[in-house]
């Protein structure tokens, strides 16, 4: 069902990982300093993950880092949960992540490659599912929905999912034009303009934004209950949002 797009995602992210994995994970703030790269992950965790956990108080045993890349949030989650399962479609990213998180310092993180759609995990086992700046790159809404369905499957009742989604563009007119062009034309225009082809690829540009109604319907279709939509303070207003969701009803807030 997703075959060609799954392969395109894996090929695209393996190519980015081979060229410069840090830059393509954090293209805005990457400055060549690996320590700063992981420090930014911890700062965002304090700003967002800690806020979400204070509000909804999920369990502390197992966290899922969906689309972990090099593990910038896996580290932060490992400080807050007993165990972390960190998955990514790129085996190149996972290989780099393992080298950056050597045992025994990070012995509670398991880095695994997945196919971009399915999770090799039992159902109802995850206390906290986290996905940040990942599904914005998915090439279509069906793949986004499939990932949310897997989050719903592995999330335990009483667990919390924080799913980062694209809701708009900083330059909507440009993206509106790109959506009308076939992929070969986008690639040609990218070469002519001397732009980075790996950032113009559909597996980096991602699918069109989702509106709140679409997000709520997608969550409901997969068995998740929307708790709230939280504007993302780390992106331009109106472009990214967190869908906070639970399985099996609303969570208590504190």
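^ structure tokens above, recovered residues below v
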């Amino acid at each position: 069902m997703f075959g060609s797009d799954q392969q395109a995602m894996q090929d695209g992210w393996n190519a980015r990982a081979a060229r410069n994995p840090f830059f393509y994970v954090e293209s805005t703030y990457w400055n060549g300093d690996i320590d700063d790269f992981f420090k930014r992950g911890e700062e965002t965790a304090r700003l967002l993950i800690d806020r979400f956990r204070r509000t909804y108080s999920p369990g502390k045993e197992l966290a899922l880092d969906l689309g972990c890349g090099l593990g910038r949030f896996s580290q932060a989650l490992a400080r807050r949960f007993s165990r972390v399962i960190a998955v990514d479609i790129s085996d190149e990213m996972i290989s780099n992540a393992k080298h950056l998180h050597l045992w025994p310092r990070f012995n509670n993180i398991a880095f695994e490659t997945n196919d971009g759609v399915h999770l090799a995990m039992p159902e109802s086992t995850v206390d906290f599912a986290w996905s940040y700046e990942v599904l914005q790159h998915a090439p279509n809404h069906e793949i986004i929905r499939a990932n949310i369905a897997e989050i719903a499957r592995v999330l335990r009742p009483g667990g919390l999912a924080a799913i980062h989604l694209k809701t708009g563009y900083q330059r909507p007119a440009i993206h509106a034009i790109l959506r009308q062009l076939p992929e070969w034309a986008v690639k040609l225009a990218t070469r002519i303009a001397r732009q980075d082809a790996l950032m113009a690829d559909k597996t980096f540009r991602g699918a069109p934004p989702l509106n709140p109604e679409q997000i709520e319907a997608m969550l409901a279709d997969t068995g998740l209950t929307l708790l709230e939509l939280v504007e993302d303070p780390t992106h331009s207003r109106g472009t990214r949002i967190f869908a906070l969701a639970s399985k099996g009803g609303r969570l208590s807030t504190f």
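Residues 3-247 form a domain with the Rossmann fold fold (CATH 3.40.50.150).
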